[in-house]
Amino acid sequence: MLLEVSNIDVAYAKFSYLVLKGVSLNISQGQVVSLIGPNGAGKSTALRAIFGLLRPRKGKVVYKGEDITGISPIEILKKGIAFVFQESSIFPSMSVYENLEMGAFIQDDKAKFKENLERVYALFPVLKYKLHKRAGILSGGERRMLEVGRSMILNPNLLLVDEPSVGLSPKLMGMVFEKLIEINREGNITIVMVEQNAKQALEISDYAYLLVDGMNRIEGTGKEILENTDIRKLYLGG
């Protein structure tokens, strides 16, 4: 098992109540896994706990057999886990190239950086064409490409992606999902994704977890959950 999240309770410091209550996830190498559920279910909180941005009050997170519960995000990044945030995280006054460089701030191997940079260019050719443009003038879709591309600079083994399609048109949304599939299949990179468009996420997912009120409710293959009549009525809009 690549990643095991075992019975974690998580609360934000300013709140006394638990956002996650005994949530467990089991992720195998090479899978695309979606976390779905209503707003406030704790999906993004789960990703933040895995990445060390929040420390579970109970339970543990194990990656490749090592307990990484609550260690710093930088240390987690070094272990091969990257995070694409829901909120924009680009540096608008810096160039596209400089933003990509920031993705490799923990890496000193220039040859490796160049090799990974070429992979990003192959994945998102538009970034190469706009390499010296300020990131702040990019379109919303291009910014999302830059954020995903920057997360790939260290060639992670596990990619956490929070709401990749947020704010995008249906056409750009489809493109982002296509690129995530390409990242998964060509690089054997495991992806754990929180996505507002649950139907589309389930269509590309090997496995999925439905969270409700901060707890595991249902799990199964993407197809099983997509075809579950009750889930469709309650959480997928029909």
Strand content: 15-25%
How many individual β-strands?
10
How much helix is in the residues? 25-40%
Which geometry do the CA atoms define? Answer: globular
What is the element string, with H for helices and E for strands? Answer: EEEHEEHEHHHHEHEHEEHH
The low-confidence runs, each spanning 5 or more residues with pLDDT under 50, are none
Number of helices: 10
- Mean pLDDT comes to 90
Q: Kindly report the spatial arrangement of strands forming the biggest sheet.
A: 6-7-8-3-9-10
CA gyration radius, whole angstroms: 18 Å
Distance between the termini: 34 Å
Q: Main sheet?
A: 6 strands, mixed
Specify the structural class: alpha/beta
List keywords for this structure.
about 240 residues; alpha/beta; 6-stranded mixed beta sheet; 4-stranded antiparallel beta sheet
